[in-house]
Write a structure and sequence with these properties.
CATH superfamily of the largest domain: Exopolyphosphatase. Domain 2
CATH class of the largest domain: Alpha Beta
Helix content: 40-55%
CATH architecture of the largest domain: 2-Layer Sandwich
Strand order of the largest sheet: 5-4-1-2-3-12
Structural class: alpha/beta
Mean pLDDT: 93
Low-confidence stretches: none
Largest sheet: 6 strands, mixed
Distance between the termini: 15 Å
Number of helices: 13
Oligomer: single chain
Order of helices and strands: EEEHHEHHEHEEEHHEHEHHHHEHE
């Protein structure tokens, strides 16, 4: 079985096709194709509340390409999910309707709660029966999920994101609200809190920290890496650190979000599993198809 996930974010649009391998009721996701296209919908939406005509044209072309890839890979099931930028735009629904009429593709404009639920599916296998604060920073929003004894107890989405900050459209009120939420929900009696970070920017920080997969990064090390990056120009980040241009300009504001939340929660380290919304979508599709076929399974990591 082949499954595809399309994550339509505020900073980029990701497409992944994976084939599902099964042995002794264990599931492995084998990546066949991954495309990340830097279409920054958040630039339009956070400035004008609308997706521009130029971005709409690019978006429709990109959807045609993705549909062709779905056909060429003979995908069995797929799901398109749009997050903060499209759900906040005045014409996001209009664009989704155009794509539906032109290509027969349904774009699911999901709310912050469902976005968090899907990402939680992807990180579940990385957590034990301890206390975790999951921080997912996107271009337009940040999703926070609190796990106590391995069980999710609280979740909240905030309109604070890397592109939103870059465009100077982050609200001081929302920052204050996020701080209050963390401080009131992460209680001392929960004991040690470990942060779990998802998103392209924290993955890049993890890479620059030169840690091995599965290792946690201390808050001190995150600050050191962030300071190093901050002292470089955008061009230096691109050529010396091999960052994509649309990563080079948002990595510092994104890192600030992770650090602030960690400080408020008194988390001294952060785990960075290399998963995100697209992986949660793939798991959702797998579970749906497994349920339909009534097959028992236990999935492994991506």
């Amino acid at each position: 079985m082949k499954l595809a996930a399309i994550d339509i974010g505020s900073n980029a649009i990701r497409f992944q096709v994976s084939t599902i391998l099964e042995r002794d009721k264990k599931i492995l996701f084998k990546k066949l194709e991954y495309v990340r296209f830097p279409l920054r919908l958040g630039h339009d939406v956070f400035n004008t509340n609308r997706i521009s005509q130029a971005s709409m044209q690019k978006f429709r072309k990109l959807m045609k390409v993705y549909k062709l890839l779905l056909e060429l890979y003979e995908v069995d099931d797929y799901m398109f999910c749009a997050t903060s930028a499209m759900r906040e735009s005045e014409n996001g629904e209009e664009l989704a309707k155009m794509v539906k009429e032109e290509l027969g593709i349904t774009i699911n404009i999901i709310d912050g709660h469902l976005e968090a639920e899907l990402i939680n599916k992807a990180i579940a296998s990385y957590l034990s029966d301890e206390t975790y604060l999951h921080i997912d920073v996107g271009g337009g929003s940040t999703e926070l999920n609190l796990f106590v004894d391995g069980i999710k107890t609280k979740t909240r989405s905030f309109k604070v994101g890397s592109v939103r900050i870059l465009e100077h459209h982050d609200s001081p009120v929302m920052w204050t609200d996020m701080e209050k939420w963390v401080k009131s929900n992460v209680k001392k009696e929960f004991g040690k809190v470990t942060a779990v970070g998802t998103g392209g920017n924290i993955s890049k920080i993890f890479e620059l920290a030169k840690k091995k997969p599965g290792q946690a990064v201390s808050i001190k090390k995150v600050k050191e890496v962030m300071k190093m990056v901050e002292n470089l120009t955008i061009d230096q980040r691109i050529y010396e650190l091999q960052m994509n241009p649309d990563r080079a300009d948002v990595i510092v504001p994104a890192s600030n979000i992770y650090l602030k939340v960690m400080e408020w929660a008194h988390a001294q380290s952060i785990l960075v599993p290399d998963v995100g919304l697209k992986d949660g979508i793939l798991l959702h599709l797998l579970e749906k198809n497994i349920k339909q076929k009534k097959i028992e399974f236990s999935h492994s990591r991506f």
